[in-house]
Amino acid sequence: MNNAFKALADGTRRKILSLLKEKDMTAGEIAEQFNMSKPSISQHLKILKNADLVSDEKKGQYVVYSLNATVFQELVSWALDFVEKGDEQK
Q1: pTM to 2 decimals?
Q2: Which residues of the chain are under the pLDDT cut of 70?
Q3: What per-residue confidence (pLDDT) applies to 75?
Q4: What is the distance between the alpha carbons of residues 44 and 67, in angstroms, rounded to a whole number?
Q5: Domain boundary assignment for the chain
Q6: Class in CATH terms, 2-88
């Protein structure tokens, strides 16, 4: 979960996740949405993948990235548990 929070700390990575929430995309399609180099986008995707926030699948000559909702469910569950425990202490 620590890697997920570190990955979410960056605005570019949050925007990538928002794009992937709408539809699966290739790295090139993602890069078109930003004013930065493709290697920079690839680095952001690598961090998101290492945090299990995105998954990738090779389709022909392209790699298609998609959102991994399971990790988000774990983060939300942790946050709700954290809030509920805080409310119990009041």
Answers
A1: 0.85
A2: 85-90
A3: 84
A4: 14
A5: 2-88
A6: mainly alpha
